[in-house]
Q: What sequence folds into this?
C-alpha cells in the first residue's frame, strides 16, 4: 500500500541498523530522559532524568496530576513535542529496539507510521475534519482488512454507512473509537494513549477502556496509558508508573502497588480517590499545598513540602528510584513505612449543618424544555426535548445530586433551577432569600478575564452598600474561607491555576451565602487530588453556611459522597430518586445500573 | 509580533503627532508663495515647490493633517454609533434586535460611497461635510461586530456568573460584555483607517473635500496630475504620502491583531 507521499510501508526500514534490534528489546525504553520546554521565552524543566521501560505486550499506566509532566513524556515518546516551545531533549528513547536519540524527524515519521499507535485526549480534533472516516482508517490499516471490519470491531454500528461520515458527524465517543481503530489497525508494537477517556462520560469511558485493553491483548501490542485517574490505571494496566513534578517517583506491578504503595505521593492519590465505598461521614484526605513543578525544588525531594513522612534528609537530599517491597521501585527514603492508608488515618468529620428548618427551597413542577435545533439545509423543525415533565423539590440545607450520562438533561435542569434558563412549560417556585449561585465546570471560563477576582467577588457585595474598606475585608474573608491567599484578590483568571480558579468562583458564590449552591460538573475536569480538596470544601461550606446543594455530575461516587439524595436522569426524565446509599447499593432503573457498571472500580479487573 | 508591524504602530503615533503639531513643525505657510515655481527637491526646499511656488514639504505636512485627522474622526464617529447600535440590539433582543439588525444590513447593502458622494455634493463640498456624511455611513460593520460579540459572550459562564451575582443593566454591558467586543472592534477600526483615507482622498480628488487652496493630499495629486511627466514631485509626493499612510495603518492593524491574540 502506498500513501500519497509515496512511502512504501511494507519496505523494511532501511534507515535503521537492524543489528541493533534484539528479539527481547522492550517496546519502549526511556533512558535518562530530560526535557526542557520554553514558555514565554523562559526555559522550564518539565522532565528530569526519567528512566523506565514498557515490555513487549505490557500495558503500563503513567499516573500523575496535571503539571507532573506525564503528557510531555507521552509526546516525547512519539516525537511530537510542540516545536513552538523549543524543546531541548536529553537522553535516549528507543521504540522496539530502535534508538531515536537524535530525534531525526525522518526516523520519527517512519516509526510513527509503522510501529506506533497514538490515541489523544481530543478525538474530534485528532481526526482530519475534511476527510471521510473510512479514508482515514484505510490509510492506517496495514494488512488490507476492510475498514468496515475495523469499525465493527471497535463497536460502531452501521459500519458501512459510517465509513462515509465526516468526523463532525460522529459523537466524541465514536471519534475516539475510530482513533483507536486507526491506532490498533496497523498492528503497532506500542500504543501511546494520552488521557483518551478524560473528555468522555463514564459509560463511554468504560466501553473505550474495555476496547483498548481487549484489542491490545488481542494484537499483542504494548501500551503506555497516561491518566490522572488511579482507578482507570488499575483497571487497565499490568504496571503503574507514578510521576510527580517531572520525575518518576514510583513504578510497580499494578495490584501490589495499589494494595501497598511505596511512595507517599502514590498513597495520597490512593487516599484521595473517592470510590463507591468511601466513608461519607468523614472528609477526604487531601494533599494540602499546591502541586510542585519540576523546577520548583532544586535540592531535596519535590514532594517534601506536601509529605506527612518528611524528614530533614528529604529536604537536603533527593531520593533516587531504588528497589521497593512490591518488586518495582520507589524514590523515597521511607518507602518501607508507606501504606495505602497513610493519609486516611484520623480524618476530620464534617461540621454540623446549621440549617434546621425543613422547608421547600425550590420546587419544580411539570417542567418541560426543548431546544430548537440548528436549521439543517432541508430543515425539519423538530425540537430536541431536553426536559420532560420534571418534578423536583429541594429542601433547605439538603444536598441533592443529579446524575446522568451526557444528554440526559441534567445540566438543563440545573440551569432552570438557577434561573439561567426559562422553562417552556411548568412552574419553578423559589423561596425568598439570596438567589442561587452556580459553580461551573469550566472554572477559568467562569471568571471574567479582564476583571480581578476581588472585583468579581465584590459584585456580590454591592447590594449591601458597604463602605469600601469593609467590602474589601469581606472579599478577603471569602477568599480565605475557600483556602485562597487574600492577596490573590488582585489576580486575574490567567494568573491562577485551574484549582485556584474554581476556589475563586466558590469564593464569589459564598461571599453572601446563597440558600442554594448549584454545581455543574464542578469537579469533572479536575485531578483526583484537586477534586477531593474541592469536595471537602463544598461539603464543609454547605454545612457551615447552611446552603442546600444541587450537585450535577456523571460520577456516582462523587454524587454519593456529596449528597444525601440522588436523582438519576436519563433522556430528559427523572428515572430514579432516593437515598444516596440506597441508590448505589440497590439501583432499580437500568440507567442507574448502567452508570454504576461504568464506574472504574466496578469494571472487571478492578481491585476493590 | 514581527518587527515591521511594531514599527508601523510606532509610525502611527509619529504620524498623529505630526498631524497635530503640523502648524508648528512646517517651515512655511502652506498657501503662500515662498519661492520660484517648479523648484525640484533640493537642500533648501526638501520636497521642492509646486506650480505657484509654495513649499511642498509644508503642504505635505498640512496634507497629512488634513487627511489623517478627518480619517480618525470618521472612524471615531463610526465606532461610537456602531457600538451604540450593536450593543442596543444585542441587549434588547426580540423585535428591537431584529429591527436594528435589518437597519444595519440595509446600510451595508446600499452603495454607501455613491450616496455619500451625492449627499456631500448636495450639502456643498467641504471637509467637515465629508467627515459627517462618511461617519453616517461607516458604522454598520462595527455594529455587527459588537452585536455578535456581545451575544456570544453573554452565554459564556463568566457572563452568566456575573448575572447571577446580581449585575444587570448598563453595568453588565459596560463592565462584563462590551470589553469582550473591544479587541475585534479596535482591530477592525485600525484596518479601516486605510479604507477611510482612500475614500477621503477619492472625495477630495473629485473636488468634494477641502476646497481649493487647502493642501489635501488627494486633491494635490488630482490638480497637478498634468505635470506628472515634467515635474514629477508635485503629483507623486502626495500620492506617496497617501500610500505610506494606508500601508502603515494596515500594518498597525495587523500588529494590533496579533497583540490582542497574545493577551
A:
Amino acid at each position: 500500500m502506498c500513501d500519497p507521499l509515496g512511502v512504501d510501508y511494507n519496505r523494511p526500514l532501511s534507515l535503521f541498523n537492524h543489528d541493533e534490534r534484539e528479539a527481547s528489546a522492550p517496546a519502549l525504553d526511556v533512558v535518562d530522559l530530560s526535557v526542557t520546554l520554553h514558555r514565554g521565552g523562559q526555559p522550564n524543566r518539565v522532565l528530569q532524568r526519567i528512566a523506565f521501560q514498557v515490555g513487549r505486550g505490557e500495558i503500563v499506566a503513567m499516573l500523575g496530576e496535571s503539571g507532573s509532566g506525564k503528557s510531555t513524556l507521552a509526546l516525547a515518546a512519539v516525537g511530537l513535542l510542540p516545536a513552538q516551545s523549543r524543546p531541548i531533549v536529553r537522553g535516549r528513547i528507543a521504540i522496539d529496539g530502535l534508538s531515536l536519540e537524535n530525534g531525526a524527524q525522518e526516523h520519527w515519521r517512519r516509526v510513527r507510521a509503522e510501529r506506533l499507535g497514538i490515541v489523544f485526549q481530543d478525538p474530534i480534533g485528532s481526526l482530519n475534519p475534511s476527510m471521510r472516516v473510512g479514508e482515514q482508517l484505510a490509510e492506517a490499516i496495514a494488512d488490507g482488512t476492510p475498514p468496515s471490519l475495523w469499525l465493527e470491531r471497535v463497536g460502531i454500528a452501521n459500519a458501512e454507512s459510517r465509513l462515509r461520515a465526516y468526523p463532525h458527524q460522529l459523537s466524541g465517543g465514536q471519534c475516539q473509537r475510530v482513533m483507536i481503530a486507526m491506532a490498533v489497525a496497523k498492528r503497532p508494537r506500542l500504543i501511546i494513549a494520552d488521557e483518551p477517556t478524560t473528555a468522555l462520560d463514564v459509560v463511554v469511558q468504560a466501553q473505550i477502556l474495555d476496547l483498548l485493553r481487549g484489542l491490545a491483548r488481542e494484537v499483542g501490542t504494548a501500551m503506555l496509558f497516561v491518566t490522572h485517574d488511579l482507578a482507570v490505571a488499575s483497571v487497565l494496566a499490568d504496571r503503574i508508573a507514578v510521576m510527580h513534578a517531572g520525575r518518576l517517583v514510583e513504578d510497580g506491578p499494578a495490584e501490589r502497588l495499589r494494595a501497598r504503595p511505596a511512595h507517599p505521593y502514590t498513597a495520597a492519590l490512593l487516599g484521595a480517590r473517592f470510590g463507591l465505598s468511601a466513608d461519607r461521614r468523614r472528609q477526604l484526605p487531601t494533599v494540602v499545598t499546591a502541586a510542585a513543578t519540576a523546577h520548583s525544588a532544586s535540592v531535596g525531594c519535590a514532594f517534601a513540602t506536601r509529605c506527612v513522612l518528611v524528614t530533614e534528609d528529604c529536604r537536603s537530599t533527593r531520593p533516587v528510584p531504588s528497589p521497593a517491597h512490591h518488586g518495582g521501585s520507589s524514590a523515597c527514603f521511607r518507602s518501607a513505612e508507606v501504606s495505602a492508608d497513610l493519609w486516611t488515618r484520623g480524618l476530620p468529620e464534617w461540621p454540623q449543618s446549621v440549617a434546621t428548618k425543613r422547608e421547600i427551597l425550590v420546587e419544580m413542577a411539570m417542567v418541560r424544555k426543548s431546544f430548537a435545533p440548528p436549521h439543517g439545509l432541508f430543515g425539519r423543525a423538530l425540537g430536541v426535548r431536553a426536559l420532560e415533565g420534571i418534578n423536583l423539590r429541594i429542601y433547605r440545607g439538603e444536598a441533592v445530586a443529579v446524575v446522568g450520562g451526557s444528554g440526559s438533561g441534567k445540566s438543563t435542569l440545573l440551569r432552570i433551577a438557577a434561573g439561567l434558563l426559562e422553562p417552556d412549560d411548568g412552574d419553578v417556585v423559589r423561596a425568598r432569600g439570596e438567589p442561587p449561585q452556580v459553580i461551573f465546570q469550566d472554572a477559568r471560563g467562569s471568571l471574567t478575564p479582564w476583571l480581578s477576582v476581588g472585583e468579581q467577588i465584590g459584585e456580590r457585595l454591592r447590594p449591601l452598600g458597604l463602605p469600601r474598606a469593609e467590602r474589601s475585608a469581606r472579599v478577603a474573608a471569602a477568599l480565605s474561607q475557600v483556602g485562597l491567599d487574600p492577596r490573590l484578590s488582585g489576580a486575574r483568571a490567567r494568573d491562577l491555576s485551574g484549582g485556584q480558579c474554581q476556589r475563586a468562583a466558590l469564593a464569589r458564590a459564598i461571599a453572601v451565602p446563597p440558600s442554594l449552591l448549584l454545581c455543574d460538573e464542578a469537579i469533572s475536569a479536575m485531578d483526583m487530588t484537586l477534586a477531593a480538596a474541592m469536595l471537602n470544601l463544598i461539603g464543609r461550606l454547605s454545612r457551615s453556611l447552611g446552603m442546600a446543594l444541587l450537585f450535577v455530575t456523571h460520577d456516582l461516587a462523587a454524587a454519593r459522597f456529596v449528597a444525601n439524595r440522588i436523582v438519576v436522569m436519563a433522556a430528559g426524565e427523572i428515572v430514579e430518586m432516593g437515598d444516596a446509599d440506597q441508590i448505589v447499593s440497590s439501583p432499580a432503573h437500568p440507567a442507574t445500573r448502567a452508570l454504576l457498571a461504568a464506574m472504574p472500580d466496578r469494571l472487571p479487573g478492578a481491585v476493590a | 509580533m514581527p518587527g515591521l508591524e511594531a514599527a508601523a504602530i510606532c509610525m502611527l503615533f509619529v504620524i498623529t503627532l505630526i498631524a497635530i503639531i503640523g502648524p508648528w513643525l512646517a517651515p512655511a505657510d502652506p498657501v503662500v508663495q515662498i519661492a520660484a515655481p517648479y523648484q525640484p527637491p533640493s537642500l533648501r526646499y526638501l520636497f521642492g515647490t509646486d506650480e505657484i511656488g509654495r513649499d511642498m514639504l509644508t503642504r505635505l505636512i498640512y496634507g497629512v493633517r488634513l487627511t489623517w485627522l478627518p480619517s480618525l474622526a470618521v472612524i471615531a464617529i463610526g465606532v461610537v454609533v456602531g457600538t451604540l447600535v450593536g450593543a442596543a440590539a444585542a441587549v434588547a433582543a426580540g423585535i428591537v434586535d431584529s429591527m436594528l439588525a435589518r437597519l444595519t444590513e440595509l446600510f451595508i447593502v446600499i452603495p454607501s460611497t455613491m450616496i455619500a458622494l451625492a449627499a456631500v455634493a448636495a450639502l456643498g463640498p467641504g471637509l467637515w461635510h465629508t467627515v459627517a456624511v462618511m461617519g453616517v455611513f461607516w458604522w454598520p460593520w462595527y455594529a455587527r461586530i459588537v452585536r455578535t460579540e456581545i451575544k456570544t459572550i453573554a452565554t459564556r459562564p463568566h457572563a452568566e456568573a456575573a448575572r447571577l451575582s446580581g449585575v444587570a443593566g448598563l453595568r453588565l454591558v459596560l463592565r462584563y460584555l462590551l470589553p469582550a467586543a473591544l479587541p475585534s472592534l479596535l482591530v477592525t477600526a485600525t484596518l479601516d483607517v486605510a479604507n477611510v483615507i482612500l475614500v477621503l482622498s477619492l472625495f477630495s480628488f473629485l473636488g468634494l473635500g477641502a476646497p481649493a487652496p487647502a493642501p489635501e493630499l488627494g486633491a494635490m495629486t488630482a490638480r497637478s496630475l498634468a505635470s506628472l511627466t515634467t515635474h514629477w514631485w508635485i503629483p507623486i509626493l502626495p500620492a506617496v504620502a497617501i500610500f505610506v499612510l494606508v500601508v502603515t495603518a494596515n500594518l498597525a492593524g495587523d500588529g494590533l491583531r496579533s497583540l490582542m491574540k497574545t493577551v
Observations:
- The CA atoms of residues 352 and 396 of chain A lie 15 Å apart.
- The two ends of chain A are 47 Å apart (CA to CA).
- Confidence is low (pLDDT under 50) at residues 1-22 of chain A.
